[in-house]
Amino acid sequence: MHSIVSRINNTSAFLSSCLMALLAAIALSSFAFTAQPQGDLAISSIKVVSSNARRYPNKKQDMAFVHFNITADLTPLFHWNTKQLFLYLEAEYANAQGVKNEVVIWDRIVRRKEDAFIKFAGKNKYMFRDISSSFKNVPPANYSLKYNVMPYVGMLTTGEAARTSEPVAFPPTQSRL
Amino acid sequence: MFTEELKAFKRLGFRHVLLQVLNFASVIASGLMIWKGLGVITNSESPIVVVLSGSMEPAFYRGDLLFLTNPAKELYKTGDITVYKIPGADIPIVHRVLETHEVKPKRSSKSKSKTQDASDVAANQRLLTKGDNNYVDDIELYQGLEWLERKHIVGKVRGFLPYVGYVTIAMNDFPQLKYALLGGLGLLALLQRE
To answer: Across the A/B interface, how many CB contacts are shorter than 8 Å?
Structure first.
């Protein structure tokens, strides 16, 4: 009954259940933090340029170049169970064929609370193209800044920090930048 | 040392051995039932996965455990972290959604109904993914496909538990460990006295 093996067994079982309870408590505690910070997002300019498609060099493909300004204070999202923030700027639009699209054009990983005050002005990091390969007759698009809070342990949550006040139209295609 | 054990083994008799074998089998069966039950609830073929590569660093490292769900009627959004498996590729990949396109389903003669089912819309969603730690999107990983489709997706990451999955990576990297562990467990199950 009181052999070494059974002692080791009991101790390790107890320790692992303590650890599980602690992790569950930490995971649940992050539901108590319900900050929803709001920031500002403004699109300063959009250009649509005709270029060659990535896989098919003979096919034409419109690329949109979006310049934007972001100001957002996301420090409230950092609590003791926040490992990092994944911040991304997304364009939402329905194209001329009625296909609804969401395209991420910029992202940033924020790992420290000190870096969570975002003030950024720049252009899209990823290619912004439509699946019909043309932005002709595409209705105006909405842009929004969203975040994904990634915990040390537990559930992943998402939220929206900013949105353009009104849809931004695509300009006519130009042949060169 | 082993003579003692063998004596004990003989004293316990055949029935005891059978009982232990039965116990062992029931442990394995209940494990399998829990796994498959979770799969049914979450609508995912593998509701818990272990991260195998560093392409999502610093969010996920090798050996982290991810919990997935895959509701049939829910559309995927950008920023969601998906686990997908391309036919022909042997391991599932954990990457974040970069683009979604709700392509209209092709009109087939069989489905005459005007109202589209939510799961029908979801099934026609096209996705493009990218690893947080990669510079380019995943189009090269799709083995010739232009977009990722719903049928390739195993699930969406909902929960995260660090390090725990490293055991399975260690067992894959050092197969001896796996056999030692299995053999040890089997021996313990057989020799244990209640």
So the answer is: 74
Compute the mean pLDDT over every residue in chain A, rounded to the nearest whole number. Answer: 92
DSSP for chain A, please give it: ---HHHHHHHHHHHHHHHHHHHHHHHHHHGGG-------EEEEEEEEEEEEE-SS-TTSEEEEEEEEEEEEEE-GGG--TTEEEEEEEEEEEEE-TT--EEEEEEEEEEE-SGGG-EEEEEEE-SS-B--TTS--TTPPPBEEEEEEEEEESSEE-EEEEEEE-SS-BPPPPEES--
Task: Find the mean pLDDT for residues A92-118.
Answer: 92
Residues above pLDDT 90, as percent of chain A:
76
3-state secondary structure of B183: helix
Selected residue with higher pLDDT from A25 and A57:
A25
Is B48-105+116-167 CATH 2.10.109.10? yes
Chain B residues in contact with A155 by the CB 8 A cut-off are: 158-160
Distance from CA of B125 to the nearest CA of A (A): 10
Domains of chain B by residue range: 48-105+116-167
Q: Give the pLDDT mean for B105-123.
A: 64
pLDDT digits (tens, 9 = 90+) for B21-59: 898 899 999 999 999 999 999 999 999 999 998 899 889
Query: Which domain, by its residues, includes A10?
Result: 1-32
Q: Do A104 and B104 touch (CB under 8 A)?
A: no
Chain A nearest CA to B83, separation (Å): 15
Point out the residue among B78, B158, B162 whose CB comes nearest to the CB of A90.
B78
Check whether residue A3 and residue A63 sit in a common domain.
no
ipTM: 0.88
